[in-house]
């Protein structure tokens, strides 16, 4: 029978989602085979699908979340739930329910049957902005402090020619804990040749103890705020002065977060049409690489940089197409990031005669500064000082001038109840007709003439203005600052002492590498300070330094005081001649035209301990010699030597170090200036300790080792090396990353212990190795394992006497016991031990 005559030859196929359905249309009499005498009817057209439900993933500008959602197809349009569209950043303008995506403004929709996706294209602005911030240079680690005591000392002996021998010992007592740091510093002086002053050598230092600073300080790391009670030095701005005070100080402390960048870094914004990779190049060097989704992005993972440069951003899509954009940038570390603030509020009394008397405090005073990053391009600052008889206030701003540097301006005003005084405690006045006196020289009445020609006896008000500019780049650097004050201007330090501020000060510095960095760096500086007596101090400095062959280097400097004849100069060569040994030779010229040749040799003292020395000789009209040696150990540093003109030498010696009590132990150490760490290995001795991958030594018999050279708040890596230890010694952890609070110490514990371990061979009653996988439990420690090949099992953390419970094939349990030697330093080999079999609870006795 021909196929055309078969029933169902006119089968139609209708396409349904993910499959096909064959509908057989049979005639009413087609239930059995029939013969036809004519051709069948022509096939009819397939029905058109106008309503269907698809399950598709949504793709928006090339990005998908790989979630399958229902999509309704109706009348050549695609309908999606409003919540699904909103989740994919589609603007639905408040619509609810099923939404026809083709009717949404600025949206293009296409069905991709091959990938079963509904592909949508929307404006880039609809997609969320991506902040690309890579890994920071260091992670934040909260700082710690244990409880302990520290005593620092530095004792200096001197024997000057024709003078009095003396010993001066600087001391610091420090108590630290999680509640803060309490410290006291001072010097005890003893004149060996007799009590009293050293009149022969001009010294006015008295025998006895002189206190320097005493204070308690606590830092709130979460809010970056330090609280200090006692003696301190107030913070200052570039256009104000610090004051040494005693009282209460509350200040911002960015030092507790070394991972935090306080100044605005380079930010670049762009748009990725499709998912891409973005690479950042700074001055030709690749700095970072990150993956992007489609849409706008902001690049913020720029490394710590300062000054001018060029950034190149390269985006690469999935098929390798690249778009490269180069932009110039300028980063200034004198600015604060937007919305970041810095402050210092100090309330107390100004301290006078510091280093001369134990405690000489003036009336109550207040000093405060505040800085705020109004934007990434503008930082505002304010300053105020108040003491009885004086009030001062000022405002300033630091402005980023595009890519051309940073401009700084400030203005201050002071009001006092008396005019400023000169260095000889005389009030500055002016005789209008000068009385024949040169300006700035006291006249017959003891008054100082003002070169401005005005009587300033009543000048109690004054002002100060500063203007500065700086620019730094890889080619050159430029910095300029001018400050100008009127006659009556005073601040906290000058008002409470007999010092005078200058009338005007200018400084300009410039440095460059005109022939490339490899050919040296040249610097020029100009400094001009004008006092109120119209005297000027003007200095010009020129310097040039460069590397020579190997590690050798050369340094040249010229100094000229304008208005004076002559100049001074120095030329020096530094030549390494061995491990840590340097030779230096040069010539020096003073302003009078006298030349002096110089030669010397030195060996740097090893940081981990050892001998260092220094020899120097200079000739000319007044020959000078110097020789000293330094011996550095873990426990102290000893120095000694002599210096002076030929035949007229000063002999000296110095001993410095620290004594620490922490972790119920005493430690002798080299001088500890900042923070430190005590490693505790739980009374296990001779464990090698590494700090930042550098070997620091081994633990003592108490399992302790002091690491004295730790930078506070820096997350440092501390670890122990267990490889040299015996096989029966284990440690639960071998490394840690620790940040220590300023001036404090932390005990870092590593649990190191000696354990008894054994490889045990087990046999059955027939003397054959136990079957592989037999369950074995150590009764005392409840450790469970299974036998390996040849009936071997391994147990650690055992005791001297041990019992094994062995699960046999018939589910009975036999017990074998063995004894270990606690004096061995290796894994013991035990057995073979035989399991007797038979009844549960049978024992093989003690075997070892």
TrEMBL record:
Q: Which InterPro entries does this one have?
A: Fimb_usher (IPR000015), FimD_plug_dom (IPR042186), PapC-like_C (IPR025949), PapC-like_C_sf (IPR043142)
Biased amino acid composition, Low complexity: 424-435
Gene3D superfamilies assigned to the protein according to its UniProt record, in alphabetical order:
2.60.40.2070, 2.60.40.3110, Outer membrane usher protein FimD, plug domain (2.60.40.2610)
Question: Signal peptide position in this chain?
Answer: 1-33
Query: For the PapC-like C-terminal domain, which residue ranges apply?
Result: 760-821
Report which superkingdom the organism of origin falls in. Answer: Bacteria
Q: Where is this region: Disordered?
A: 411-459
Alphabetically ordered keywords of this record: Signal
Q: Pfam families, per this entry?
A: PapC_C, Usher
- PANTHER family, per this entry? OUTER MEMBRANE USHER PROTEIN (PTHR30451), SLR0019 PROTEIN (PTHR30451:SF5)
Q: What is this protein called?
A: Fimbrial assembly protein
Species of the source: Rahnella variigena
């Amino acid at each position: 029978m021909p196929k055309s005559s078969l029933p169902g030859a006119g089968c139609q196929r209708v396409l349904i989602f993910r499959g096909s359905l064959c509908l057989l249309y049979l005639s009413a009499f087609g239930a059995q085979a029939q013969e036809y005498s004519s051709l069948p009817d022509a096939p009819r057209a397939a029905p058109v699908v106008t309503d269907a439900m698809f399950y598709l993933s949504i793709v928006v500008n090339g990005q998908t979340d790989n979630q399958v959602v229902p999509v309704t197809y109706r009348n050549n349009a695609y309908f999606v739930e409003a919540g699904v569209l909103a989740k994919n950043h589609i603007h639905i303008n408040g619509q609810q329910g099923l939404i026809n995506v083709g009717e949404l403004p600025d949206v293009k929709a296409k069905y991709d049957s091959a990938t079963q996706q509904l592909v949508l294209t929307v404006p880039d602005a609809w997609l969320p902005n991506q902040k690309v911030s890579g890994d920071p240079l260091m992670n934040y680690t909260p700082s710690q402090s244990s409880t302990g005591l520290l005593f620092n000392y530095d004792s200096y002996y001197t024997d000057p020619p024709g003078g009095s021998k003396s010993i001066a010992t600087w001391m610091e007592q420090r108590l630290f804990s999680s509640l803060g740091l309490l410290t006291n510093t001072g010097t005890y002086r003893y004149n060996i040749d007799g009590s009293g002053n050293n009149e022969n050598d001009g010294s006015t230092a008295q025998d006895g103890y002189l206190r320097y600073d005493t204070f308690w300080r606590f830092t709130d790391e979460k809010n970056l705020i330090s609280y200090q009670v006692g003696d301190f030095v107030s913070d200052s701005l570039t256009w104000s002065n610090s004051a040494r005070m005693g009282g209460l100080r509350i200040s911002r402390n960015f030092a507790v977060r070394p991972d935090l960048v306080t100044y605005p870094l380079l930010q670049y914004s762009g748009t990725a049409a499709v998912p891409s990779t973005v690479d950042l190049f700074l001055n030709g060097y690749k700095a970072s690489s990150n993956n992007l989704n489609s849409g706008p992005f902001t690049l913020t993972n720029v490394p710590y940089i300062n000054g001018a440069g060029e950034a190149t951003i390269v985006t690469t899509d999935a098929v390798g197409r690249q778009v490269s954009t180069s932009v110039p940038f300028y980063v200034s570390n004198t600015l604060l990031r937007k919305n970041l603030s810095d402050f210092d509020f100090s309330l107390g009394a100004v301290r006078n005669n510091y280093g001369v008397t134990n405690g000489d405090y003036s009336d109550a005073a207040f000093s405060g500064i505040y800085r705020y990053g109004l934007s990434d391009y503008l930082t505002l600052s304010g300053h105020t000082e108040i003491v009885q008889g004086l009030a001062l206030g000022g405002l300033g701003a630091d402005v980023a001038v595009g890519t051309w540097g940073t401009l700084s301006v400030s203005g201050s005003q002071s009001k006092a109840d008396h005019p400023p005084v000169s260095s000889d405690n005389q009030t500055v006045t002016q005789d209008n007709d000068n009385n024949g006196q040169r300006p700035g020289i006291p006249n017959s009445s003891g008054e100082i003439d003002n070169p401005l020609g005005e009587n300033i006896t009543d000048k109690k008000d004054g002002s100060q203005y500063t203007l500065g500019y700086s620019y730094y780049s890889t080619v050159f650097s430029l910095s300029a600052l001018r400050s100008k004050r009127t006659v009556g201007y005073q601040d906290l330090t000058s008002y409470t002492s007999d010092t005078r501020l200058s009338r005007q000060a200018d400084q300009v510095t410039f440095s460059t590498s005109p022939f490339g960095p490899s050919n040296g760096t040249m610097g020029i500086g100009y400094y001009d300070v004008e006092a109120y007596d119209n005297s000027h101090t003007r200095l010009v400095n020129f310097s040039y330094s460069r590397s020579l062959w190997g590690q050798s280097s050369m340094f040249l400097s010229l100094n000229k005081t304008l208005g004076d004849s002559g100049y001074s100069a120095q030329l020096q060569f530094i030549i390494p001649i061995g491990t840590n040994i340097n030779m230096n030779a040069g010539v020096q010229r003073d302003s009078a035209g006298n030349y002096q040749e110089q030669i010397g040799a030195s060996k740097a003292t090893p940081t981990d301990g050892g001998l260092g020395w220094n020899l120097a000789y200079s000739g000319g009209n007044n020959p000078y010699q110097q020789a000293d040696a330094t011996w550095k150990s873990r426990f102290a540093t000893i120095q000694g030597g002599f210096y002076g003109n030929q035949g007229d030498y000063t002999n000296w010696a110095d001993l410095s170090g620290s004594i620490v009590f922490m972790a119920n132990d005493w430690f002798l150490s080299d001088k500890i200036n900042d923070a430190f760490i005590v490693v505790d290995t739980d009374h296990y001795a001779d464990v090698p300790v590494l700090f930042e991958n550098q070997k620091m030594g081994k633990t003592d018999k108490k399992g302790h080792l002091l690491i004295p050279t730790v930078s506070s708040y820096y997350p440092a890596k501390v670890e122990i090396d267990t490889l040299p230890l015996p096989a029966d010694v284990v440690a639960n952890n071998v490394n840690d990353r620790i940040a220590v609070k300023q001036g404090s110490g932390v005990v870092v514990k590593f649990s190191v212990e000696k354990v008894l371990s054994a490889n045990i061979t087990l046999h059955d009653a027939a003397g054959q190795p136990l079957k592989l996988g037999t369950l074995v439990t150590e009764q005392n420690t409840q450790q469970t394992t299974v036998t390996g090949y040849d009936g071997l099992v391994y147990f650690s953390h055992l005791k001297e006497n041990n019992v094994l419970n062995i699960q046999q094939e018939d589910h009975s349990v036999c017990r074998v016991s063995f004894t270990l030697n606690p004096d061995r330093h290796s894994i013991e080999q035990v057995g073979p031990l035989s399991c007797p079999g038979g009844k549960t609870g049978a024992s093989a006795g003690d075997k070892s």
